Amino acid sequence: MTGSSTQGIKTVLHPVTDLAAAKAVYAALLGVQPVADAPYYVGFEAEGQHIGLVPGGAEQGMTGPVAYWHVPDIEAKLAEVTAAGAKVKDAARDVGNGRLVATFTDPDGNVLGLLQDS
Predict the structure, then answer these.
(1) pLDDT over 90 at 5, yes or no
(2) Class of 9-116 per CATH?
């Protein structure tokens, strides 16, 4: 199979209902303080991975953690996975600083994410 490769799973977002409580647990788990700490998002950098806490994520359709595969070309990768049978859930969108994210579902309905940094 040809196509563009990924740079691996480097970002995992978790929906949370109590941001303060979750922040304390993840800080204890990861052994670091958050690098992003806002009422709408808390993010940690640990061992080359970004772990994000998304308050209200369940209301946004997150049913559990979503792993984001980092890719050099998000549109090309979306085309590849949909040609292989995936379905786009959320089309690519800019979430700030040129970072693009998208989600899709595999044939079993599992939600997977793609992330492209500019």
Answers:
(1) no
(2) alpha beta
